[in-house]
Design goal:
Elements lengths: L3 H21 L5 H8 L3 H7 L3 H25 L4 H10 L2 H11 L10 H22 L8 H20 L7 H12 L4
Helix pairs in contact: 1-2, 1-4, 2-3, 4-6, 4-7, 5-9, 6-8, 7-8, 8-9
Protein name: TetR/AcrR family transcriptional regulator
InterPro entries: Homeodomain-like_sf, HTH-type_TetR-like_transc_reg, HTH_TetR, Tet_transcr_reg_TetR-rel_C_sf
GO molecular function, one term: DNA-binding transcription factor activity
Length: about 180
């Protein structure tokens, strides 16, 4: 019999794998997810008895991860450039949020996550406003535009990293460069 800690670790690993699988194939079956996660379908079903439960757990994890990153940023008294660098360094949950929960919640069957996703996005926009008020980020564009840009850049960087077109350590630097300096030379 597996311990609770072992099951939680296995579940976390499966969620990570499932997120990558579903990013590329929204309709992936439990069998496909299990194979790509390197586990048996029986093990996957023991951890998540239905695809709906797997998707709900994935959405919760993504939202929880975003909440943790934002909580640290919202209470941080460091200079805004450092706060932004921290959020950008932990861009993956925002990429996943944008990819799965915020943009297309119905695709994965978790519409109840939409409200929480909107709250996370609102907090992200508030963080951007803080950057605008500090003079770090341009203030000639709405904070929601810049927050959406961050999420879109995060999603692109995450996908390129998954596909092997970008290194995981490059992604935050590239996101930061575009946010702070645009695409100009």
């Amino acid at each position: 019999m597996e311990s609770g800690a072992t099951m939680r670790t296995a579940a976390a690993e499966v969620l990570e794998s499932a997120t990558a699988v579903l990013a590329k194939d929204r309709g992936a079956s439990m069998q496909v997810i299990a194979v790509r996660a390197g586990i048996s379908r029986a093990t996957l079903l023991r951890l998540f008895p239905t695809r709906q439960l797997l998707v709900q757990a994935m959405a919760e994890k993504i939202l929880d991860d975003c909440d943790r990153v934002l909580a640290r940023a919202e209470v941080d008294t460091a200079p805004m450039k450092q706060v932004l660098a921290t959020v950008v360094a932990e861009y993956t949950p925002f990429a996943q949020l944008w990819n799965f929960v915020y943009v297309e919640p119905e695709v994965l069957g978790v519409p109840e996550a939409s409200e929480r996703a909107r709250a996370v996005f609102k907090r992200t926009a508030s963080l951007v406003e803080r950057g605008q008020n500090s003079g770090l980020l341009r203030n000639d564009m709405p904070a929601t535009w810049l927050a959406s840009t961050f999420c879109g850049l995060a999603e692109t960087a995450w996908e390129l990293t998954l596909e092997g077109h970008m290194g995981s350590r490059q992604a935050p630097d590239f996101i930061n460069a575009i946010l702070l300096h645009g695409a100009t030379a």
